[in-house]
Amino acid sequence: MLSGLTPPFFAALEDSHRILIAGMGGGFDVFCGLPLYFALRAEGRDVVLGNLSFTSFSPLMPRPVAPSLIEVTPDLLVQPGEYFPEYYLSRWLATQKEPSSVYAFQKVGVQPLLHAYRALIHHLKIDTIILIDGGTDALMRGDEIDLGTPHEDAVSLAAVNELKDVKRFVVSLGFGIDRFHGVSHWNVLEATAELARDGAYLGSFSLTPDMRPVQLYRDACEAVFEQMPRHVSIVNSSILGAIWGEYGNHHATERTRGSELWINPLMAQYWCYELGAVAECLQYREALMNTFTMSDVDRVIGAHREAVTIRPRFELPI
């Protein structure tokens, strides 16, 4: 790559050695970080995967690192087909001779999630955290006409923002996907422009089929989808379709039948930001700080939406 045109994100990672790539919105978000994971591993970095988990944590679940945090490994006892993306990813990683632990954060409020992140940083000596958003609704500040699915993203953002001794970034993949949840991408680009003015937008770059980390990302997704056929990820299926050249109303999974999709090349692009600046834009971040459960989070977001003036909807003029 021409050194003068390298996205600033790469330079920001230059001194990072122990990196946690964590899905911030739960579900399959961590899979959106796999191209970065494999690229950084190929450079010799120590990289760990984590995810805000939608799986219920049993009191008997082995390997708790801390309250609200478990280490998922291939030898867990899991019922076939159970919704547990972190487990099936762990199994696939083991087949690739990669470190197979995936750390799962419980779906909780900011205070217990912050405690879990602090425990994992201490446990693994993490120096850098990259929060991965499958989609772009993590950039919604709170007064847009539609926020997408904000709860998990906002909790992860608020918690990691409190970690002052590590580098922190937000990286999104899947521009356009949140249209499925009503998000106007006019707001996404508006937020990116505001962050650029503050020097907090660290550039974007595309994933293409010839890249080995991207091929491994596809292999991982396909292997896990086969193990969880009722829960194929709409986000990652759409991104993979975009990378391999699908366009328009293309449906890779039956889960999207009956809706109109816009699969497009922008879905295959990583968008990178300084996490602290993104967190500063979240209008209800301070109100989230004393939350302990997702019910608390829901009340905070609801109260904010009632108190704020909702801006009108704008669509991209293209």
From TrEMBL:
<dbReference type="Pfam" id="PF06626">
    <property type="entry name" value="DUF1152"/>
</dbReference>
<dbReference type="InterPro" id="IPR010581">
    <property type="entry name" value="DUF1152"/>
</dbReference>
<protein>
    <recommendedName>
        <fullName>DUF1152 domain-containing protein</fullName>
    </recommendedName>
</protein>
